[in-house]
Amino acid sequence: MKTKELYQKIKIKASPAKVYNAFMNEKQHQAFTGQLAKIENKKDGKFATCGDQNYGYTIFLDKGKRIIQAWTLKDFPDNRYSIIDITLNETNKGYTELNFHQSGIPDEFLKHLKNGWKAVYWKPLKAYLEKGIKQPLKQ
After folding, report:
1. From CA 86, how far away is CA 127, in angstroms rounded?
2. Diameter of the chain by CA atoms?
3. What confidence score (pLDDT) does residue 2 get?
4. Which of 34, 105, 112, 135 shows its CA 20 to 30 Å from the CA of 123?
5. Cα(8)–Cα(13) distance, rounded to whole angstroms?
6. Percent of the chain scoring above 70 in pLDDT
7. CB–CB of 40/46 below 8 Å?
8. What is the mean pLDDT of residues 1-30?
9. What is the pLDDT of residues 41-97, one digit of tens each?
């Protein structure tokens, strides 16, 4: 199966610790995405986000700095997992640079994920951390 990689970078006016916690704390994750999340915030911990659409397990955590997860989308073929790697770097003036890399994406899902990460994660994450905007929870 042919696979692709995805790289995205965003700046968020928040500390790396706040960005990390929003991603790894299930209540905060739900607040910014507006979708159910179950997250075991530990190495080898399982997660399911966006209801049951995305799921996997955490490979590595460096609190406030880095998250590596084996991640899959419900519609991925053959129970295939991709790897997401998020690094958080503090920049000047209270910003965090979030560097996102996803490898092992089945070819036909690249466009969907490229747009999906921006719409479902990065845009609402910025709004949540910078303006306190919480998304209503979708059941």
Report:
1. 19
2. 45
3. 94
4. 105
5. 17
6. 99
7. yes
8. 97
9. 999 999 999 988 999 999 999 999 999 999 999 999 988 999 999 999 999 889 999
* Nearest by Cα to 17 from 133, 129, 119, 123: 129
Q: Is the dihedral of CA 9, 13, 16, 22 positive or negative?
A: negative
Would you call 77 exposed, middle or buried from its count of C-beta atoms within 10 A (0-12, 13-18, 19+)?
exposed
pLDDT (0 to 100) of residue 52: 85
Q: Quick one: pLDDT at residue 79?
A: 86
What domains can you pick out in the chain, each with its CATH number? 3-131 (3.30.530.20)
Structure tokens at 110: 């690249």
Report residue 85 as tokens: 């790697």
**Exposed, middle or buried by CB within 10 Å (0-12, 13-18, 19+), for 13?**
middle
